[in-house]
Amino acid sequence: MARVSIQQKLSVDQELITSARLIKAGLGQVQSLHGGNDFYHLPLLTLASGFERLMKVTLCFRFLETEGRFPGIKEIPVGRNGHDLMVLLDLVKNKCFLPEYVGHIPVAKEDWDYLESDRFLSFLEALTRFGKSARYYHMDVVLGKDPDSLPPEREWEAIETSIFLSRDDLVQEMGENPAPQNIYRELNSEMVVIGERFARSLARLYTIGRIGSEAQAHMAHLSPFWGLKDSELGNSYYDPFGRV
Questions:
Q1: Please, which of 28, 78, 117, 149 could form a disulfide with 133 given CB 3.0 to 4.6 Å?
Q2: Is 37 helix (H, G, I), strand (E, B) or coil?
Q3: Element (DSSP H or E) covering residue 115
């Protein structure tokens, strides 16, 4: 621990606070979407940044526990790869979902299985594409660069479509009423639940996951997520500005 400076400790604490607030703000921005507000770019940007930061902080805490120091710039994904949420998730699963945790605690196994589910991964893949390139899609077009992603509004539609096709009740409702407002409310609610479950699975690593003593000392910052019961998913209100 002698190789860890006070400034590093203060900064990792602030980074964890920032990640939690960004995730809450992103979920609030999803809840604020409606027919008169289709600014999909904002929640995509906020959620991508929040989850990227939370996974990186989590990896830093685990590195501190095993190595006695925080990782260097070459020991954690940075640059373009640093925005790849799929890569970060694989690292978190490999380094933080410890065998004794996943193998002996039922909710840990549930979290693991959820993080490997098609519904969740399609959501994370869309956030990854946005974080790596789609957020600059239109500027790339202006500058003559051939974009390697969909524009932000199409990425949002991709998330909605994956959720929609997984809900037989919504598919049936769409067939009976081609433009029901209820469907859009349900899609937004489902998106919030996906974000909540992802945040909860990461937050539990700080409590029952026991990834390190320093991580456990900071778990209060993630209390809005690790304490969520299944019956409470999708029922919380989140401020779109991330205010407490």
A1: 149
A2: strand
A3: helix 106-115
Does residue 212 come out as left (phi exceeding 0), alpha (psi in the -120 to 50 range) or beta? Answer: left
Which range of residues forms the domain containing residue 91?
A: 6-232
Whether 58 is covered by a domain: the verdict is: yes
Residue closest to 198 by CA, chosen among 50, 79, 98: 50
Report d(CA 70, CA 237) in Å as an integer. Answer: 35
> What is the distance of C-alpha 2 from the center of its chain?
32
CB 128 within 8 A of CB 83: yes
Angstrom distance (rounded) from CA 126 to CA 158: 7
pLDDT tens track for 69-79: 999 988 998 76
Determine, yes or no, domain membership for 237. Answer: no
In a domain, 189, yes or no: yes
**Total domains present in the chain:** 1
Tell me: the pLDDT tens digits for 38-67? 788 899 899 999 999 999 999 999 999 999
Residue 10 Rama label (left phi>0; alpha psi -120 to 50; beta) = alpha
CA distance to 3, 175, 213, 232, per residue, from 93 (Å): 26, 39, 19, 25
**Distance separating the N- and C-terminal Cα atoms of the chain:** 32
